[in-house]
Amino acid sequence: MIASMQTRFPAGFVWGTATSAYQIEGGRFRDGKGESIWDRFADRRLMSESGDVACDHFHRWREDVALLAELGVNAYRFSTAWTRIIPDGSGPVNPQGLGFYDRVVDELLENGITPWLTLYHWDLPQALQDLGGWPERATVAAFERYAEVVSAALGDRVKHWITQNEPWVSAHLGHRFGMFAPGARDWGSALRAGHHLLLSHAKALPVIRENSAGAEVGIAIDCRPSQPRSEDPADVAANHIYDGLRNRWFLDPLYGRGYPEGAMEAVVPSPEVAALLNRAEDHEAIAAPIDFLGLNYYTSKSVAAGDEYAADQDRPAGTDQPAGFTEMGWRATPAVLTDYLIDLNDRYAPARIVITENGASFSDGPGPDQLVHDERRIAYLRDHLAATSAALNAGVPVGGYFLWSLLDNLEWIHGYRQRFGIVWVDHRTGERIPKDSYDWYRSVVTTGTLG
C-alpha cells in the first residue's frame, strides 16, 4: 500500500505512543515494589535480559516525558505496575509506588500530553499467582480493589483508562502454551484465566467511572485477523475455529454474544470449566458498554487445516527475514487492517475504535553519524496509518492511534534483540537517540497528514 500525500486525519484525532511498565521501568524492588510473575518467570528461565532495569524509566521518566513533548503527541499510553502500588496484590497500598505515577501524570499534563492509563499489562503480583493467579476468581476481586486504589488516586487527572491489555496473551501464551509468565501449559487454566480477565475488566468499569468523573474506559484486544489458506472446506473450517479462539473469544462476550459457537464446541472444556464459561451473570457484566474498543494490530494469519489451536507466529523471530516481514517474523499486512476495522464496525458497532498498538521491530542502530536510519519502520508505519485512514473514510469511527513503541524496550522473552521503538536505547548506558521514524512521526502528528 502506498500512502497518498493527501491523506489527512480529522481534527481531534488522538496521536500517541505506548509503553508498558515491565518493559521500560526497571526499578525492581525499589521503593517497596513487590515481585511480579514476570520477575519470577525471568529468574526461573535464567533470562539474561529481564525487566530488572529495562529502559530505567523509573529513574529517567522526566527525560522520556521530554521526548514525548518534543515528539508533539497529544497522548501517551502507559501501564501502572500492580506490584509497585500494592506489592502483594491484595494487601497494604504502597504510597511510594502511587507517588511515582502521580508525578508522571502531573509531568505529562504539564507538557500538554493526555495520559491513557492501562491497569494491567501482564505483570500479576507473584503473591496472587501463589494463590492460583488468574484461573482463580479471587484474583478478580483483587483486581477490582487495585482499580479502586489507582482510580481514586489518579482519577481526578486521568480520564482515559484501559482495564486489560491483550487478555488472549495472558490467558493462552501464559497458561496454555507456557511461553509467557506464569508459564503454565493447561487448556482448562487458560480458559478460566481468560474468563476472569474479562470479568475483571467488567468489575473495574463502574469503579473507575465512580472515581474518575467523565472518564472514558475501554479494553485493548490483540487480534490476528485470519483467512483460510484455500477454499478447501477443511481450511475454511479450521479458520472458523482459529478466529473463534483467537479473536471472537474475547470480542463476542464484550458485545453481548457470549463465547462463539463452534469455538466453544471445539474446545470441549470440562463440566466445571463449561459451567464457569456459561455463567449468565458474568456475561451480563462483561457486556456492559465500553467507551472505546482498543485494537492492537501487527499482522494477520493464513490458516490451514491443523492450525486451529496453534500459536500464531508465522516465522521464527530474527534479523534474517524476507521482504514484507518484520524481525518478529510477522508479515506486514496493512490492507487487512482496513478490512478488519470495517468488519469490526459492521459486526459490533463499537462507539469508537482506538488503535492502541501498532508498530514494527527492526534492529537498525546508530551509524557513524550517530543517527538511526530506519526506513523500513517508516514504510511500515506509513502503510498502516494509510490503512487506518482508509477505514476512517469508509465510516469506521477510529478515534486515535498509539504507535508501539516510544522506546526500544524489553520485548518479553525476546529481550532487547527486538527493537520496536522510535527512540533507540543503549541498554548498557541508557542513552536515548531518536530515530528517523521519530522525526517522521513528529511530522505526521504535527500536520495530521502522511508525507
Concise synopsis of the structure shown:
This protein is α/β, with parallel strands linked by helices. The protein has 16 helices and twelve strands.
- Number of spatially distinct domains: 1
Sheet having the most strands: 8 strands, parallel, barrel
Write out the strand line-up for the largest beta sheet, numbering strands in chain order: 1-2-3-4-5-7-9-10
Write the element-wise H/E pattern from the N-terminal end onward: EHHHEHHEHHEHHEEHHHHEEHEHEEEH
Main traits of this protein?
alpha/beta; eight-stranded parallel β-barrel; two-stranded parallel ribbon
Question: How would you describe this structure to a colleague?
Answer:
- The protein is of the alpha/beta class and 451 residues long.
- The chain has one domain: Alpha-Beta Barrel (TIM Barrel).
- 42% of the residues lie in helices and 13% in strands.
- The protein contains 16 helices and 12 strands.
- β11 and β12 form a beta hairpin.
- α7 packs parallel to α9 and α9 crosses α13.
- The longest helix is centred in the middle third of the chain and has 25 residues.
- The N terminus is likely disordered.
What is the fold's blueprint, element by element?
Blueprint: E1 14-18, H1 21-24, H2 37-44, H3 57-71, E2 75-79, H4 82-85, H5 95-110, E3 114-120, H6 126-129, H7 138-154, E4 160-165, H8 167-175, H9 187-211, E5 216-222, E6 226-228, H10 233-254, H11 263-267, H12 271-277, H13 280-286, E7 292-296, E8 301-303, H14 334-348, E9 353-358, H15 375-393, E10 398-404, E11 423-425, E12 432-434, H16 436-447
Parallel strand pairs: 1-2, 1-10, 2-3, 3-4, 4-5, 5-7, 6-8, 7-9, 9-10
Antiparallel strand pairs: 11-12
Helix pairs in contact: 3-5, 7-9, 8-9, 9-13, 14-15
